[in-house]
Amino acid sequence: MEPRRSSPPLLLLLLLLGASGFFQSYAVEVDVKDASNATCLYAKWMMRFLIKYETNSSDYKNATLNLSSGVTHNGSVCGNDTQAALLAVQFGEGHSWSINFTKTNETYQGEFITFTYNTNDTAVFPDAKRKGPITIFVKDTMHPVQLNNVFVCHNTDFLEAENVTQIFWNVTVQPFVQNGTISKKESRCRADMPTSAPTVPPTIANVTTAPTTTLSPAPTTAPKPVENPDTGNYSLKSGNTTCLLATVGLQLNVSQDKPHLINVNPKTTTADGACGNTTATLKLNDGNSTLIGFTFVKNTSASVQKFYLKEVNVTLLNHLNGSVISNADNSNFSEWDAFLGSSYMCRKEQTLKINEDLQVHTFNLWIQPFLVKANKFSTAEECFADSDLNFLIPIAVGMALGFLIILVFISYVIGRRKSRTGYQSV
Ligand SMILES: *[C@@H]1O[C@H](CO)[C@@H](O)[C@H](O)[C@H]1NC(C)=O
Ligand SMILES: *[C@@H]1O[C@H](CO)[C@@H](O)[C@H](O)[C@H]1NC(C)=O
Ligand SMILES: *[C@@H]1O[C@H](CO)[C@@H](O)[C@H](O)[C@H]1NC(C)=O
Ligand SMILES: *[C@@H]1O[C@H](CO)[C@@H](O)[C@H](O)[C@H]1NC(C)=O
Ligand SMILES: *[C@@H]1O[C@H](CO)[C@@H](O)[C@H](O)[C@H]1NC(C)=O
Ligand SMILES: *[C@@H]1O[C@H](CO)[C@@H](O)[C@H](O)[C@H]1NC(C)=O
Ligand SMILES: *[C@@H]1O[C@H](CO)[C@@H](O)[C@H](O)[C@H]1NC(C)=O
Ligand SMILES: *[C@@H]1O[C@H](CO)[C@@H](O)[C@H](O)[C@H]1NC(C)=O
Ligand SMILES: *[C@@H]1O[C@H](CO)[C@@H](O)[C@H](O)[C@H]1NC(C)=O
Ligand SMILES: *[C@@H]1O[C@H](CO)[C@@H](O)[C@H](O)[C@H]1NC(C)=O
Ligand SMILES: *[C@@H]1O[C@H](CO)[C@@H](O)[C@H](O)[C@H]1NC(C)=O
Ligand SMILES: *[C@@H]1O[C@H](CO)[C@@H](O)[C@H](O)[C@H]1NC(C)=O
């Protein structure tokens, strides 16, 4: 299994822009290089977040979160025909932001934005009632852009979801860069177009953008796929080394509203998460409104250390505006257990019941959340469902036969004894 080739010589520059103190913001520049050191994903943009949060006196306040210095870019991925590109940045006291891009033969498009803000950051949220990271997912509103064009938008763009307004401006981005050269052909956002277009007066802009969103078909009533899902290869890295490997085909059985099955498309799915000493988390984002998280833990109470799947959570989002349709979490699993240092395999279909309304079906599963060596799966422990029945049946038959022979032998011996004692007493 080939790991994600996330390029080592990532380059990130921070430029201090804007002399006026009040709107002081940093431009972020990320230049992701591929294995041959050529630029494959380039972005430079400015952003800011307005976040409504609950205070310890139970009212709501608005905080402004700006990009600070010390931005990192761990986990950014070049992407290709089969894998989405990922632009990921981390900043401040535990905040992070990422967007994935998918491509077709002609175009590319932003899919989902994942934003995590940490209310433990007392400089921004001094009196937050709830302390800790909060993650939101928003469907990107970017229209498809011609491949090999650089997308430019100087005007401000807003995205609002779940108490957070994300504000972007001075955006330059190009995923799937060819030949390592940023294109000279620009695709400008609508707001940047010359004022002949009816985009300037906000009332008209609302009218003109509304039909484009309602044109897309409703997302929740998708025709159910009957065929099994394609199997995907996913991996996580810690630094330069692969620390988690997963091969799996995933299907969701959603019973909410109209029951339906959703196959996770590995071609558009990106893997994210974290490897740890005692816990490993694999988060999959199918780039199309489905997010699945798997949490593995070590069982330290056993005499020989094992690992198992402890938690699965699934978030289904509305296609059009990224609002959460359902959020299911079950942290009481004790599945997929295997000895530490080995991998767990189950080719047959398995069902993980998250709650009454949601099941996750897995196919061709092969997983190793801990102690991955040299980018390869270690010896696999196979699930019982996979075990060869043709191999078990002869053993069972053999055991039954052996048991019968012993039984016959014992009754023969007992019979002989009885008859011998019988002779003696006469
Ligand atoms: C996943 O990896 C296996 C080998 O580890 C390979 O045979 C298979 O083609 C890969 N699948 C994809 C979709 O890349
Ligand atoms: C796409 O990228 C992934 C990871 O970087 C790699 O494993 C895969 O082989 C690539 N596929 C193609 C068609 O280049
Ligand atoms: C990539 O290019 C940079 C400068 O352009 C250079 O410093 C670096 O050593 C190169 N890395 C590799 C692996 O070639
Ligand atoms: C709320 O938090 C602030 C900052 O930590 C603290 O000064 C204040 O006393 C707290 N108020 C209440 C009602 O807990
Ligand atoms: C968002 O705001 C609403 C109230 O407007 C509140 O009920 C909810 O808990 C908030 N969500 C988060 C994640 O802060
Ligand atoms: C956006 O970028 C342009 C040129 O790159 C610059 O002149 C302008 O000041 C920037 N706008 C903001 C708000 O920083
Ligand atoms: C990349 O290079 C190839 C071969 O050198 C060329 O055919 C192609 O047009 C180039 N693509 C771009 C976008 O420059
Ligand atoms: C996204 O999901 C919808 C509904 O679930 C489906 O019709 C569509 O084909 C999916 N798009 C992609 C690119 O997988
Ligand atoms: C989907 O879930 C429902 C409710 O739990 C169940 O009745 C149904 O059999 C499941 N369908 C499949 C294909 O597993
Ligand atoms: C699942 O739970 C983990 C840990 O609580 C969280 O980090 C992650 O964002 C959740 N994922 C989804 C898809 O809800
Ligand atoms: C951990 O291992 C112990 C000893 O083998 C076992 O009794 C226990 O059920 C395991 N815990 C889980 C959650 O699998
Ligand atoms: C998203 O759209 C759905 C239906 O299309 C609607 O019910 C929901 O309120 C919308 N959410 C937001 C945050 O706009």
Low-confidence blocks of residues:
1-23, 196-224, 422-426
Q: How far apart are the first and last residues' alpha carbons, in Å?
A: 81 Å
Main beta sheet: 8 strands, mixed
**Any idea of the CATH topology of the largest domain?**
Porin
| Structural class computed from helices and strand pairing | mainly beta
Shape: elongated
The CATH class of the largest domain: Mainly Beta
Portion in helices: 10-25%
Bound molecules: 2-acetamido-2-deoxy-beta-D-glucopyranose
How much of the sequence lies in strands comes to over 45%
Tally of helical runs? 2
- Integer count of domains: 2
The overall pLDDT, averaged over residues, is 79
Order of helices and strands: EEEEEEEEEEEEEHEEEEEEEEEEEEEH
- Cα-atom radius of gyration: 28 Å
Describe the structure.
- The protein has 426 residues and is mainly beta.
- The chain has two domains: 4-191, Beta Barrel (Porin); 232-382, Porin, CATH 2.40.160.
- The protein is 12% helix and 46% strand.
- Strands 1, 2, 3, 4, 10, 11, 12 and 13 form an eight-stranded mixed sheet that branches. Strands 14, 15, 16, 23, 24, 25 and 26 form a seven-stranded mixed sheet that branches.
- The protein binds 2-acetamido-2-deoxy-beta-D-glucopyranose (NAG) (12 copies).
- One 2-acetamido-2-deoxy-beta-D-glucopyranose binds next to loops.
- One 2-acetamido-2-deoxy-beta-D-glucopyranose binds at residues 56-57, 126-127.
